[in-house]
Amino acid sequence: MSMKELVEKRNALVEELKTLTEAEEFDEKRFGEIDTELKSLDKQIEARQIIEDKAAQSAADAKPVIQTTEEREEAELRAFGRYVQGNLAQEDRADWTITANGAIIPTSIANRVIERIKDQAPIFDMATKFNSKGDLVFPVYDEESEITANYAEEFSTLPATAAKFKSVTLGGYLFAALTKLSKSLVNNSAIDVANFVIGKIGDSMAEFLRGELISGTGASHMHGILNSTNVVSASSITTDALIDLQLAVPQIAQDSAVWIMNNKTFATIKKLKLSTNEYILQMDLTAPMGYTILGKPVYIDEKMPDAGAGASPVVYGDLSGLYINIHEDISVQVLLELYAGEHAIGYVSWAEMASEVVEPQKIAVLTQPSE
């Protein structure tokens, strides 16, 4: 008899006992039978409860309870290490999502990859990021339409001005990065394979994203900061051109503004001077490159184009104007057989993202006209 049946039978006997005590003629014989049966049921229920408690405790003892976030992350890292070695344990699979593309890696591991990408791709770090499985639609104010304010009088009709809005949709574009490691390295117990693979995945994705977040364009690609419509034209990189570029960004976006350029352009700007014969480049050990230009930090990225006719060699502004939708969580597929002839294991990391300059007023681009 199940615990439920035992309890239901006991409750029925208690109700019968209550009816018995309220009757005009007390049935002493039936009272004795019920009393004996209730005592027996109580012992059975107690015994059944002990059995169920022991079973629950055994199940809890079989699976260690992870008390802290640090312990949980460490366990996920160990499981990831087993996965990239091609031997994810059966007990780990309940906490992992296995797909045709491999495994959706746990949040703590994905966050380590994202942090690696941020380190390698500052533009990704400074952009505004969303995590949405669906498309994100942003209304963008059309700068060509104008809302004006003016003096007004009571009981007089105000002239209507209609603001126009465009829309920007961020869905997702699938991309992948391939990393190969020798089996000897993977099987070497002295190597922290999990963190090694996390680093390789992060570096591969960062290399791709740096290019796309700068110059990505086209109908089926991510769009980069060089797509900003806030453009300053100058035939060459001069002090005046950089001042104009800086002033193209409104005051409200200046606090977080930075310069983006490649090393060749940076070398050119190093030689520029103000009218007072002072270099516009100022040493600042707190800045990323140890220098500032017109008071703002400089970031070097070799994905930026060289200066020249038709090029856009310098970007200035608050990069939060670039929006990124992380449409699909990072996943990793382990390729055990494909590179067996090379004595290697392949790792394909997948992601799906979209990007667009949604607030172009925050990001100004210096463009040199074509000759």
CATH topology of the largest domain: Major capsid protein gp5 fold
Q: What's the number of domains?
A: 2
What is the tally of helical segments?
Answer: 9
Level of helix content?
Answer: 25-40%
CATH architecture classification name of the largest domain: 2-Layer Sandwich
Element order: H for helix, E for strand: HHHEEHHEEEEHHEHEHEEEEEEE
Rg over alpha carbons: 34 Å
Give a written overview of the molecule.
- The protein has two domains: 60 residues; 298 residues, 2-Layer Sandwich (Major capsid protein gp5 fold), CATH 3.30.2400.10.
- The model has no long low-confidence stretch (mean pLDDT 83).
- The protein is of the alpha+beta class and 371 residues long.
- It contains nine helices and 15 strands.
- The strands form three sheets. It has a seven-stranded mixed β-sheet, covered by helices on one side. Strands 1, 2, 3, 6, 13 and 14 form a six-stranded mixed β-sheet that branches. A two-stranded antiparallel sheet has the order 4-5.
- The radius of gyration is 34 Å and the shape is elongated.
